[in-house]
Design goal:
It contains 9 helices and 4 strands, in the order ααβαβααααββαα. With 398 residues, it is of the alpha+beta class.
Length: 398
């Protein structure tokens, strides 16, 4: 539900969609460049000649015109077609970029959500630990009244109780900040987030069997880098075409008369057609520089594509390794917590029977609290490793 809400309202994703519309407009414009242009022009021209120009016969005139003119560049060398293909690659690249934004958004929402669940769990563990310390403090006071322990034991147990309680405000602050950060991703003002429990989250089993490298092709950033290379490849073709001659055909037809009364007569019709071939000879190295820059940009885009593939492979490997590490830690941590719970129970029983020192129960409870908080981090690491792999394989945008 949160992911769907984020996709619908996240400002960064909405801006990415706006960039797609801009690229689509440029692509449509590049396709229209293959068509002839058509302009309409109407006007009145009033001129006065000098005595020498008019030869004393007609020194002034008024000309009325209504003309349609057209021009068309023959795409002999494929310059316009290459420009169109480059614009199409830019459009696809913008779409891939928006998918990259959406993939990151989905992963961030999931990671913040899991972090929020982990903080909830740590807060619950800490509050339960404080409650357990209350019982221990009461036990210490009873043992002191029975002259079984000293006042130092009571004070030490109270200090440990407060040491656990003082972390609660920081946990609540972290919860609030995480909720606010998640609200921003959803395009909402800071507000409370409705959520489940950490122990209710399920983990995909795919991580235990590995993933094929071909899935990297689904990554939007890999697609974006490949399209970027295609874009500069086509621009290199455009730059090369500037060295060849350009064939242009122009034509015009309309009405032209020196008096408004004769403007619509058949004799007022005027037309012209022409063709021109332009071959660049010397243009101050502009064409050569354009080609050299285009080739360098194409090579840079190729290197960027290769680097993106390498980074994608590394991120997948890191995510799988992180998941395996989290599973190993969870297995070891469960055994540690079982031993520490037994240690707390035994220490409490020995203390009440006078066979243990009060420092033993304090040490045992401290160790158990750290182990329980660590187990939450292990579980969070496992869940976030799944999210990272999901993002690394290009999920999150479909």
């Amino acid at each position: 539900r949160l992911i769907a809400e984020g996709i619908a309202h996240n400002p960064d994703l909405q801006m990415a969609f706006m960039r797609i519309q801009q690229s689509r407009a440029y692509y449509l414009q590049s396709g229209a460049a293959l068509l002839p242009s058509l302009d309409a022009n109407t006007g009145i021209t009033i001129s006065k000649l000098s005595e020498v120009q008019g030869m004393g016969i007609r020194n002034s005139s008024t000309q009325y015109q209504l003309v349609l003119s057209s021009s068309w560049e023959a795409d002999i060398w494929g310059k316009l077609r290459s420009s169109k293909r480059a614009s199409f690659a830019a459009l696809l690249q913008t779409e891939a970029a928006s998918k990259t934004v959406q993939t990151g958004l989905v992963a961030n929402i999931a990671n913040f959500y899991f972090a929020l669940l982990a903080l909830d769990e740590q807060l619950a563990i800490t509050q339960q630990t404080v409650a357990n310390w209350d019982a221990t403090v009461q036990t210490m006071r009873a043992l002191k009244e029975a002259a079984r322990v000293t006042e130092a034991a009571v004070v030490q147990s109270e200090a440990q109780r407060y040491a656990a309680e003082v972390t609660i405000p920081d946990l609540k602050q972290s919860i609030k900040e995480t909720e606010n950060a998640l609200s921003i991703l959803l395009g909402l003002p800071p507000s409370a987030i409705y959520r489940s429990k950490l122990q209710n989250q399920e983990v995909v089993e795919l991580l235990q069997t590995g993933v094929p490298a071909q899935l990297l092709a689904n990554r939007p950033d890999v697609q974006e880098a490949e399209l970027n290379f295609r874009y500069y490849f086509e621009l290199t073709n455009v730059a090369r075409a500037y060295f060849y001659p350009t064939l242009s055909i122009t034509g015009s037809a309309g009405l032209s008369a020196l008096s408004l009364s004769n403007f619509f007569d058949a004799g007022a019709i005027a037309a012209s057609i022409g063709a021109g071939l332009t071959q660049p000879i010397f243009n101050r190295r502009a064409n050569k520089t354009r080609l050299e820059v285009a080739k360098a940009q194409q090579q840079e885009a190729l290197l960027g594509f290769k680097n993106t593939l390498l980074i994608a492979g590394r991120e997948v490997s890191d995510a799988i390794s992180l998941h395996e590490t989290a599973l190993e830690k969870i297995n070891i941590r469960s055994k540690q917590m079982e031993a520490l719970r037994n240690s707390v129970a035994y220490s409490q029983e020995l203390l009440e029977n006078g066979f243990a020192n009060y420092t033993e129960i304090i040490t045992a409870r401290q160790s158990l609290l750290q182990a329980e908080l660590g187990s939450v981090n292990d579980r969070l690491q496992q869940l976030q490793a799944v999210v990272d792999l999901y993002r690394s394989l290009g999920g999150g945008w479909r």
